[in-house]
Amino acid sequence: MLLVKDMKNLKGKRVIVRVDFNVPQKGGVISDDNRIVAALPTIKDLIAKEARVILMSHLGKVKHKEAPEVVEEQKKKNNMAPVAVRLGELLGSPVHFVNATRGEELKKAVDELKDGEVLLMQNTRYEKGEEKNDSELSKEWASLGDAFVMDAFGSAHRAHASTYGIPEILKSEGKQVAIGYLVEKEVVSLDKVVNVPADRHPYIAILGGFKVSDKIKVIDSLLKKCDKVIIGGAMAYTFQVALGKKVGNSPYEADQLEYAKRMYDTGKILLPVDAKIANDFDNPTDIKIVEGDIPDGYQGMDIGPKTAKLYADEIKKAKTVFWNGPMGVFEKDEFTDGTVAVCKACAELKDAFTVIGGGDSASAAKKLGFKEKFSHVSTGGGASLEMIENDGHLPGIDIIK
Ligand code: ADP
Ligand code: MG
């Protein structure tokens, strides 16, 4: 697979870079520019090679099936213009912003781009054809470039026009298509939790979060790869109900019980032995620890201290860890203990490769102060899960290979 750092003869060439500038923003104010910062190495490399850099990204959602005025409203909300300003500040030189996603205005702006200059196109999702990988749209976009770089890991699991259609066309025309620095780091790191050699076992997965149904494929895949799968979060209640336990008012998925039982029967799953419970989710005034069944009128909000210890002891044995999904409602300070315990156990590992894949898990690790202690924190929640589910394959990366 070609890497951006190995691309040659780019002087004066138009290079389309699919970046992930899907930043949290409101009314043009960007609250976290991590994703823009993460794209800088690739952009700077291309500038140094005197390429003409054309950046494309989606931002938020535009639902084209809605009424026209709703679509207009969504477009306004997800305007890419402020990102160009922020990127310009970070690069220390202005970025040309093009408020168009097709047509003459865009083509003209690309034609006028000089060597080493950077252009950012308006939000790819302004186009209805983007998410459908529409072939006409892909052709028009591909015609703007002499080469393509994929650096949007968070979108690599989607075969859209900007992530798949463009490189497919350029590749067929014999042009250079490559992955950028960010995607390279993701691929190298995630490979270590996808293909785990015997001497990197025990391999332990920590799964939590809200729903079993969101994670069925990844649970299947991890049960094949891992020695133990630790379950926490609300997901645990579905398993416990499946085993005949009572969970009070805790959320669980009635349609996943059979599946949960079957997974449990693999013998690799560890379930909580106690829970921190509360009388009410929004207004938890009565909080306590229980072992075994959760009484009616209460719901589980976090794993309990015995479980935290049990899980931490298990994690201590690991040489490889993949973590997706918080152990409890970490957004509330009363229910962070379980997630802190697994973070701490991972942080204390000496000779282990530890990976976080999952948006909320990454923000939990950041909030609780453990983010830097992990070997790798994936920038793509959904993409990292799909990478594990599909044994290392993602459409937006496979097309580059
Ligand atoms: P990720 O984004 O890392 O994949 P998920 O989106 O699957 O994680 O799950 C995160 C959410 O799960 C968090 O908002 C957290 O509050 C919630 N959660 C965890 N434990 C519980 C619980 N016991 N009850 C309700 N929600 C929970
Ligand atoms: Mg999430």
Describe the structure.
With 401 residues, the chain is of the alpha/beta class. It folds into 2 domains: 178 residues, Phosphoglycerate kinase, N-terminal domain (Rossmann fold), CATH 3.40.50; 199 residues, 3-Layer(aba) Sandwich (Rossmann fold), CATH 3.40.50.1260. Helices cover 38% and strands 16% of the residues. It has 15 helices and 17 strands. The strands form 4 sheets. It has a 6-stranded parallel β-sheet with strand order 5-6-4-1-7-8, with helices on both faces. A hairpin with a 2-residue loop joins β2 and β3. The chain is elongated and about 70 Å long. The termini are close together. The model has no long low-confidence stretch (mean pLDDT 96). It binds adenosine-5'-diphosphate and magnesium ion. The site of magnesium ion (MG) has 2 residues, from α13.
Quick summary of this structure?
This protein is of the alpha/beta class and 401 residues long. The chain contains 15 helices and 17 strands. The strands form 4 sheets. Strands 5-6-4-1-7-8 form a 6-stranded parallel sheet, with helices on both faces. A 6-stranded parallel sheet has the order 11-10-9-15-16-17, sandwiched between helices. A 3-stranded antiparallel sheet has the order 13-12-14.
Structural class computed from helices and strand pairing: alpha/beta
* Count of helical regions: 15
Low-confidence stretches: none
The major sheet is characterized as: 6 strands, parallel
Number of strands: 17
Strand content: 15-25%
> Which value, in Å, is the CA radius of gyration?
23 Å
Mean pLDDT across residues = 96
Per CATH, the class of the largest domain reads Alpha Beta
Name every ligand kind in the structure: adenosine-5'-diphosphate, magnesium ion
The CATH homologous superfamily of the largest domain: Phosphoglycerate kinase, N-terminal domain
What fold name stands as the CATH topology of the largest domain? Answer: Rossmann fold
Please give the share of residues in helix: 25-40%
